[in-house]
Design goal:
about 230 residues; alpha/beta; Alpha/beta knot; Trp Operon Repressor, Chain A; 2 domains; 5-stranded parallel beta sheet; two-stranded antiparallel ribbon; 10 helices
Length: about 230
């Protein structure tokens, strides 16, 4: 899988995408992540990517031309399944979207900055808009890192235990059940006996019950979607 991230601040993405599961996936050649500096697609010496808004409102806007040149260049090299724009008014990211994106071969993620991007980019170049929540960040870089992390970890072979991702919260619209490790008794705080029983059927039953109860209590909206 290849993910090309277009940004005006590449340094914001270097650390989040250089460690842990993402790094291992890249090292194993399961994923290729490229951080592309939008300023490389400008013509002027100042490498300008933004300008004042038409209409006179406050805030600078990312210009259509460098974005178009960048995306056109990438598309001349390969086909892309999605060209994603990180936007606070996009569809809210969830596990289902992560699962879908993880099956794709090539995607572009465009990170907005300043006040946003010229709307013509959204009309003619973007295929999908995604938000990571109902709030506004300084730019789309951290949101792009979140999307990349959630997607890459799902690629088969990225995690040492492929089944681990399948038991994550939200995979079946349920929160994960409580988890424990040794010691079984710490300060009188005990691990539930069923988890020590070795009875796989009873453990599965207990975990499902806990997942349902936790979802109803903590995220009732998820349960209502079932």
């Amino acid at each position: 899988m290849r993910i090309d991230i277009i940004t005006v601040l590449p340094e914001l993405l270097e650390s989040p995408l250089s460690h842990s599961i993402i790094k291992r996936a890249v090292d194993k050649h399961l994923a290729e992540i490229n951080i592309i500096n939008l300023r490389d697609f400008t013509n002027d010496k100042r490498r300008t990517v933004d300008d004042y808004q038409y209409g006179g409102d406050a805030g600078m806007v990312m210009m259509v031309e460098p974005i178009d040149k960048c995306i056109s260049f990438l598309k001349s090299q390969r086909n892309y399944d999605e060209v994603i724009y990180m936007s606070p008014d996009g569809e809210v990211f969830n596990q289902k979207i992560a699962n879908t994106l993880s099956t794709y071969e090539n995607i572009i993620i465009l990170c907005g900055h300043y006040k946003g991007i010229d709307h013509r980019v959204r009309e003619h170049l973007i295929t999908r808009e995604i938000s990571i929540g109902d709030y506004v960040l300084t730019g789309g870089e951290l949101a792009a890192a979140v999307i990349t992390d959630a997607v890459v970890r799902l690629i088969p072979g990225a995690m040492s235990d492929n089944e681990s991702a399948l038991s994550d919260s939200f995979q079946d619209n349920l929160l994960a059940p409580p988890i424990y490790t040794r010691p079984a008794d710490y300060k009188g705080w005990k691990v539930p006996e069923v988890l020590l029983s070795g009875n796989a059927a009873e453990i599965d039953k207990w975990q499902m019950k806990q997942a349902i109860e936790r979802t109803k209590k903590l995220r009732p909206g998820l349960w209502e979607e079932e």
